[in-house]
Amino acid sequence: MDDYKNIYQKNGPIIYPGKIDSLKAFAGKNRVMLTGLFTSDPKITKYTVYWNSRQDSIVVPVKRTKNVDTVKTIISNLPEGIASFEVRTSDTEGHISIPVNIAANVYGALYQSSLLNRGISDAAIQPDGSALIIWADVNKDAGVKFMHIRYADNNDKTHDTLVVSSPTAMVTRLPNFKIGKSLSYRTAFLPEATAIDQFYTDYQSRSVKADVTKLYISNTGPFTRGAFDGNRWGILAAPWVTNATVINHSGYGGYATDSGGSLVMESGWSGSPNIINGKIYQTVTLPAGNYIFQVNNYTEALDPVYVVVASGNTLPDISSLSTALSFKRFSSKLYTDEVIQVPFTLTQSQAVSLGFLSTMQSGNQYWRVTAVSLLSN
Q1: CATH architecture of 14-110
Q2: What is the pTM of this model?
Q3: Where along the chain do its domains lie?
Q4: Which tens digits make up the pLDDT trace of 70-92?
Q5: pLDDT tens, residue by residue, 231-243
Q6: Of the residues 68, 121, 168, 273, which has the maximum number of CB atoms within 10 A of its CB?
Q7: What is the DSSP string of 326-362?
Q8: Superfamily assignment of 115-206 in CATH?
Q9: What average pLDDT does the structure give for the chain?
Q10: According to CATH, what is the number of the domain 215-376?
Q11: DSSP letter string over 108-154?
C-alpha cells in the first residue's frame, strides 16, 4: 500500500524549514520595511523576499542564536500603490519553507502632491510681544504630525521651532517675535500611524498682524497742533503736511479742537473758502511688506473724501488718484462714524505718503479724523 511513495518521494521525504513568524510590513516613501521573528529551527541561514509577481527578489542572510531572533529588511525603489510580498526561509541543506505573504501601501509623488500646509486662522502680535498663531482645525485622521516654524526675534536671532499637532483648538505662541517680519512654516505628515517615513509640504510664508504705528508714524491722535488761533483752529504739528488750500480759516486749518484734537477739513461755513485738492499727509519710509492704513473718522462731507496711500513724498491730485498705491472713499452717508482700512503692499523698501485728499466746493461741509494707525499684515 506504500508503493505510491516511490513516485513522490524518490529523493526521500520533503522537508520544510521553519517559516518566518509575526511578519509585519510598514509603509514608507517608495519603500516598505518588513520585520519578523525566528522562534525555532536553528538551521535557517537566510530568507528570500519576492515582490512584483516574483520578478524581483532579495536574499537576506540570517545568523541564528539560541534565542528568538528579530529580522528587518527594507525594500526600496518601489512604485506607489499596494505592494505584495512573499517570504520564504532556507536552511543549511537548501530546503525552502512554505511561503508567508503580506501586503503594504507604498507612498510617493502622488501622495506628496495631495498634501497642503496646515492652515493658519489668525496670526497677530500680542501685548507681551509674542506672536499668537491660531491654527485651523484638521481631521484627526489627516496624518498631520507637527509644524516646523522658522521666525526671527527682536534680536534678529533665527529660531527653528517644532510644534506637535493637535487636531482642534490649537494655538502656538512665538515669544519676542520681531514686528514687521513674517514667519515661514511647513507641515509634516505621516500617511499611516506605523509608517517609517514622514512627508513634508514646502515652506510657506505667513505674515503676522501687528500694530506698527509707533515704529513709523507719529502724531496719530488725539492730534497735536503747531500754530493755533486761540479758539478752535490750528495747523497740525509735524510730521503732518497740510497744503495751502486746507488752511482756509484766517490762516489756520487742518486741525480743530473737536473731540480733543482732530484732523479736519471744513469749507462753506462762516464764509470759509472752498478746498481744491486739499491734502493732509505724512511721508514715511517702510520696508517691503503688507500693510493697512487705518482711519477713525466722522463725516458730514458732501463731496468725495479719500484716504490715500501713494508712492513718494506727496499725494496726487484727485485727477491722478489712480496713480496711488491704494485709496478708499469716506462713506457718502452724512453724520457717520466709521473705521476705514486701506490695505497696500510694498515689494521693496520705499517712501510712501499716507493721508487725506478732498475737493470740497458744494456748500457747507465738514469731516474729521480722530485717530490713524498703521498695521502690518
Answers
A1: Sandwich (2.60)
A2: 0.72
A3: 14-110, 115-206, 215-376
A4: 999 999 999 999 999 999 999 98
A5: 999 999 999 999 9
A6: 273
A7: EEEEPPSSSSEEEEEEEEEEESS-EEEEEEEEEEE-S
A8: Immunoglobulins (2.60.40.10)
A9: 94
A10: 2.60.120.260
A11: -HHHHHT--PPPEEEEEE-TTSPEEEEEPP--TTS-EEEEEEEEEBT
